[in-house]
Design a protein that fits this description.
single chain, mainly alpha, 2 strands, 1% strand
């Protein structure tokens, strides 16, 4: 019995070991584990001297099924399979449909040419064939061939539209009203199929047919009210569909159809007496597509690339609407467009506040919110040059930049700060390159006033940037300070140039028939030129000294470096240009002022009043002894 007991224990140990090994294999292969009976513990073995009666040994549990390792196959990659499947199921399908349509059209043309079938019969055959193809396509859809079914529906719907067009235009069998109602029934039926079958492609067919109807039934007459009322109904239907279904691409299709019909009518029929009605419909279309991004459902994750559809549509819709109204009002009163642009800016500010209530997706909220704000700022920027003239445009952009800087600081918006910088850059470029001031007084004139406004806004930008404390803020502040100093030097230098140009005008010869006249009380032209050159040097040295003082006072190495660069440029001018051009007196004064200025700056650095050397030693500068 002892040998039997030991054999039983060895068998139990073997089964337990095998079970552990199978469990490890299953875990590696990811196979669902089989429930194995637990072997009784060794401690449960009776310890009495009398051995228990012999019991039959249970058979070992069956080994769990381990799936075989997948064999290497020579099947083509997934990309090749997808391409093959697409060619077989899509391209061959469409080519086959086109071939069938061509053969049928050839047969019908042959029958028509031989008068086998009359006009009414031809139209009837087309309508019946179109309806039959649509009904036949349902058989394929119920058997899982949806793509083939939708292709057949496209053929059937197209045949029905063409049959109705032929009945009206070619054979004059029905009036335009009947043809229009019949096409409307086809469009509505297709839309109903799209909703019941949850098929975006059918909705696209319905919209395509709906926007094609006015083109198919056009008689060359001006029917603005009927045309645009119908188009507005189609647009509203498209918005309702995208509000119920995540079919954002339909908005693009509807907008393109609306734009094509509007431009076609406008280029053919628009005239000044139709301004009011045309403006009403243009505004109606704008409002529909401005609201559409707010109510459109978010697409599925698979359709994520189409999440940008509302953003693109909102941007294009705003620009096209403004151009439409501008084209109508340009010949009447262009200045009124400034108020129109400001009204659009107010609308987009309002829309930017509505995005949070309609989009649960934070990313979409942020993008659409910023896009609406960008459009509002853009229209404000456009309104300024439309309404104002000359340097007032520049001042308007500077004021806009100041307001945007203040708002960006209040709401902590980097986005508005970027637009403030853009408006400021527009103003600076226009001030330096475009504005042409005609001033008659020194210092107190419109040019220096415009420069002062620019300098004030740049100073505010530098202050806001430094207050932010981050790296972009510091970079913006540094750029603003450099631009501020450049503008100040340019503005003062232009004042010097204007002053001496007026002096030169008094001494240049004035032509009188038969002789030249001179002002004997005025200085010579050369003396004025020399005085002008000396004044430039003195101005730049004085401005450099002022910057150096500010740099020492504010303990700003950035400002001191600007002063050093300006003083270096002035030094080059004095040693290279002034030596050869100025008279002895101006030359002496220039070198004297420059020498005193350089010695004073050198003395300040040598005295180390700012303890710059100590700061460099503490920072571990290897250049220090």
């Amino acid at each position: 019995m002892d040998s039997t007991q030991s054999d039983l224990q060895a068998l139990r140990d073997l089964v337990r070991d095998l079970a552990h090994r199978v469990d490890r294999l299953e875990r590696k292969l990811g196979v669902e584990q089989a429930t194995l009976p637990t072997a009784p513990a060794a401690a449960a073995t009776p310890t009495s001297e009398t051995p228990p009666p012999a019991t039959p040994v249970p058979p070992p549990p069956p080994m769990p099924h381990i799936p075989p390792r997948p064999a290497m196959s020579a099947s083509p990659p997934a990309e090749e399979i997808d391409l093959e499947s697409r060619i077989g199921s899509h391209w061959l399908n469409r080519i086959g449909i086109a071939a069938v349509l061509i053969s049928v059209s050839y047969f019908l043309k042959y029958a028509f040419d031989n008068n086998w079938i009359g006009p009414a019969g031809r139209v009837t055959i087309g309508l019946v064939a179109g309806i039959a193809v649509v009904l036949w396509s349902e058989r394929f859809r119920t058997h899982g061939y949806q793509i083939f079914s939708y292709s057949l529906k496209a053929v059937g719907i197209g045949v029905m539209y063409l049959s109705l067009w032929a009945a009206f235009h070619v054979y004059a069998l029905i009036p335009s009203a009947v043809a229009f109602i019949a096409m409307l029934v086809v469009t509505g039926s297709t839309a109903a199929l799209a909703i019941t079958q949850n098929a975006e492609i059918l909705a696209a067919f319905a919209l395509t047919g709906g926007f094609s109807t006015p083109l198919l039934l056009s008689t060359g007459q001006n029917k603005e009210l009927q045309l645009f009322s119908y188009v507005a109904l189609l647009d509203v239907a498209a918005v309702v569909m995208v509000a119920r279904k995540p079919w954002r691409r339909l908005l693009v299709l509807a907008y393109i159809g609306t734009l094509i019909l509007y431009i076609g009518w406008y280029s053919e029929f628009y005239s000044r007496p139709q301004l009011t009605l045309t403006l009403i419909f243009a505004t109606l279309f704008f409002g529909i597509f401005a609201i559409a991004p707010l109510v459109a459902q978010r697409p599925d994750r698979e359709a994520a690339p189409f999440i940008a559809v509302p953003l693109v549509l909102a941007f294009i819709n705003a620009g096209v609407y403004f151009l439409q109204v501008y084209a109508m009002f340009e010949a009447i009163d262009k200045h009124d467009m400034a108020w129109f642009a400001l009204a659009l800016a107010a609308i987009y500010i309002f829309l930017s506040r509505q995005t949070q209530d309609h989009f649960p997706d934070p990313e979409t909220i942020q993008r659409l919110h910023f896009l609406h704000l960008a459009l509002a700022i853009g229209f404000i920027t456009i309104a300024i040059p439309i309404r104002l003239d000359g340097h007032w445009i520049t001042i308007g952009w500077f004021v806009e930049a100041a307001v945007l800087l203040w708002l960006s600081d209040r709401i902590r918006s980097t986005f508005l700060s970027v637009f403030a910088a853009c408006a400021l850059a527009l103003g600076v470029v226009r001030l330096l390159a475009v504005d042409n001031f005609n001033v008659t007084t020194l210092i107190f004139n419109s040019r220096l006033g415009t420069y002062a406004i620019a300098i004030a806004v740049l100073g505010a930008m530098a202050w806001y940037g430094s207050k932010r404390g981050d790296e972009p803020g510091r970079q913006a502040a540094a750029l603003a300070v450099v631009t501020l100093n450049v503008l100040a030097l340019v503005g003062l230098s232009r004042e010097v140039a204007d002053y001496y140009s007026r002096q030169l005008a008094t001494v240049r010869p004035t032509y009188v028939p038969g002789r030249f006249t001179y002002d004997p009380a005025a200085s010579t032209e050369r003396a004025i030129r020399l005085a002008e050159d000396f004044t430039y040097s003195a101005l730049w040295m004085a401005y450099g000294a002022m910057l150096m003082i500010v740099g020492f006072w504010r303990r700003s190495s950035f400002v001191r470096w600007q002063a050093l660069v300006l003083i270096a440029a002035t030094t080059v001018k004095v040693f290279v240009y002034d030596v050869s051009q100025l008279d002895r007196g101006y030359r002496i004064v220039s070198f004297m002022i420059l020498g005193v200025l350089l010695l004073a700056i050198s003395f300040v650095y040598q005295r180390d009043w700012l303890q710059l050397s100590g700061a460099r030693k503490r920072s571990g500068d290897p250049a220090q002894p």
